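Table 4 source record.
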Amino acid sequence: MRILFVGEPLKGYLYPIISVYEELKRIIEKSDSEPSEFMLISSKSHFLEEMLEGTGMPYKAIQAAKQRKPFSPLVFVDFFMLLIGFLQSIIYVFDYMPDVIFSRGGYVSLPVVIVGWIFRIPIIIHESDTVARPIDKFMFRFAKKVAVSFSDSKEIYVSPKVFFSGNPIRSFVTQGDREKSLKSFVLDKEKPIIFIMAGSEGAEEINNFILEILPDLLRNYQIIHQCGIVNYDKVKSIVEKMNIPNLNDYHLFPFFRERAGEAYAACDLVISRAGANTVSEIMAAGKPSILIPLTSAVSDKQEKNAFHYSQSGAAVLLSEKNLKPHLLLNVIHEIFQSRLKSMEMKRAARQLAHPEAAKKIAEEIMKVAG
C-alpha cells in the first residue's frame, strides 16, 4: 500500500500529518499487514526538514502559490508557480501512484489534489479550522472523504463525505509527567506556572505584551516562554537588561518540539495564539488558556477558533486590537484567584479534546485505500 501526504511546510499542517503517519504505522504493525510506503509532498523550507527529522518519511518539494492580498501584482507570479507545481505534481504522483492521498490543504495541495483526482486516486482532506478557506473548500469537491475538526462544521459542510474526526495532535502532548517536567525545567511546584507560546507567526506582538508586564508576572508566577526562533536573541537581550530580582523564575526558549509535552504537563495556564493545531493540543492537555488570535490570519480563522473554545468555557478570548498589557495581567490574576473558574476551564478543555483524531483519520485512510 502506498500513501501520499500533502500539506504546507508549517507546523499547523505538518504536525497533524506526522500524527496520522505515526498512527498508520502503528495500525499496520499491529495488523501484521505488508509494510506500506509513505511519501510527503510539500514546498521547500528549512522548517520542513527540521520537522521531518527522525520520522523517516521521504518527501518531494514542489513550487506553490502563496496567499496574497487581493489585486497584488504578484498573482501573476503565483500563476506560473502554480503551473510549475502542477507539472511537478503530475510527475511525482504518476511516478509514485499512491493508493490514497491525504491532504491537509493549503496552496501546495491544490495541484496534487487535482492531479490525484485526474488519476482517479481516492483523496481524503482534513479541515482543521471552524471554517475552511476558499481554496480548501474548493478542493472538497475532489475528495472522497473530508474530515473536520469541529463537530458543528458538519452543519456547514452538508455532505455524506464529511465526517468528524477532531484535529490530530502529537502523541507526546498528553504523555508528559508533571513531577518529571517540574524537575526538567527547574520549577517550584508551589508557585503557579504559565506557559507562553508566542509561536512563529505574529510572535513579536505577544512577546512585547509579556515583556512589558514581566516584572509584575514574576512576583506571582513562574514563566516558560517560547518566544520564536527569530525573536530569541532580541527577547533574551531585553530581559537581561531589565534587572528583574527573581529572574530565576523566567525560562526562555526559542522553540519546542517534543519538549512541549513537558511544558504542558508542568504549567497551570497557557497563553497562545489560536491556531487550530495549537489549541487542540491545549485542550488535549486539559489546560486553561488565554487565546490571542492572530489578526492577519486568513478569513479570521484564528478568531473563529478562539471564539469556539471561549464559548465552551475552556479559554478566555482576548482580541489583539483592544489588548493592553494591564488587561492581560488582570485576566491572568482573575483565573488564578478563582479556583472554581480554573477548574471549570480545565473540565471544559478536557471535554473538547479529541485525542483519538489521528486514529480516526488513519482508519479512514486504511478503509479508502482498501
